[in-house]
Amino acid sequence: MKKIFTLIAVAMMAVGANAQQFKVAADDQFTVGQKVTSVADITMTFGGSTTPYPNKKGDKTLTDAYKKAAAHATAFASVGYDASTDGNGNNPVGDDNGSSTTPTRGTYYVFEPTAAGNLEVAGVFNADKTVVVSEDGTDITSTISYAGTQEDGTLADDFAFVDNTFNYKLYGTITFAVKAGSKYYVMIQGSKLGFAGFKFPATAAGINGVEAAATAAPAVKKYVENGQIVIEKAGKKFTVAGAQLK
Predict the structure, then answer these.
(1) How far apart are CA 245 and CA 192, in angstroms?
(2) Distance (Å, rounded) from C-alpha 226 to C-alpha 229?
(3) Which of 46, 51, 50 is CA-nearest to residue 33?
(4) What is the three-state SS of 141-164?
(5) Cα separation, 133 vs 139, whole angstroms
(6) What predicted TM-score, i.e. pTM, was given to this entire model?
(7) Exposure of 173 by Cβ count < 10 A (0-12 exposed, 13-18 middle, 19+ buried)?
(8) Among 23, 72, 245, 27, which residue's Cα sits nearest to residue 170?
(9) Around Cβ 244, how many Cβ atoms within 10 Å?
(10) What is the CA 154 to chain-centroid distance, rounded?
(11) What is the C-alpha separation between 246 and 3, in angstroms, rounded?
(12) 67-97, pLDDT tens digit by residue?
């Protein structure tokens, strides 16, 4: 069974008088190094490398690029976005192919605010991959709040964000506090974070990562058993797809 995710939906849908929003539209085409300057007090840059580099296996050479944006109206309806793009290169894991918090290749997004406030970043957050948000090279992912749904506009009853990882793919937003003059990277380790846009300043809404971890830890456990990821809740075991294990 699934439930509709409605956490502060009205607040998330509206762009207030003091907030500005950049939204990706279907068929938009972005390039590595392209900047978004249309939102006051912040500059966003599409990350990546324009210099070819070997992939992890060393069997081919990659040059980072972004795909033409695709529409996801139903998936993003609860958070007020329309479409998303993503890159062709996975973000580094650990220090492989770059830094884990300030990479120079792969798919990542850089934000440089000139004023303090809450920054909302919308995208497609893949399941079972570590979300990374860094501030001047320091990982601050534990401070984020999040909101959204799965692709069909609903949310599984056992949806969880544990150890900076979603157990289902989320079409939604993460929100975190930023400082003037600091530099922020947003990415997913070992994956390509789909990007749908951002809002600044934004209202902190949804579920706070710290609170979610604190409340979920006693009731929800995530571990590997017999070669597969298991979610344990209230004494019952589930796969990451939501199927109950006997």
Answers:
(1) 30
(2) 8
(3) 46
(4) HHHCEEEEECCCCCEECCCCEECC
(5) 6
(6) 0.77
(7) buried
(8) 72
(9) 11
(10) 18
(11) 23
(12) 999 999 999 999 999 999 999 877 765 545 4
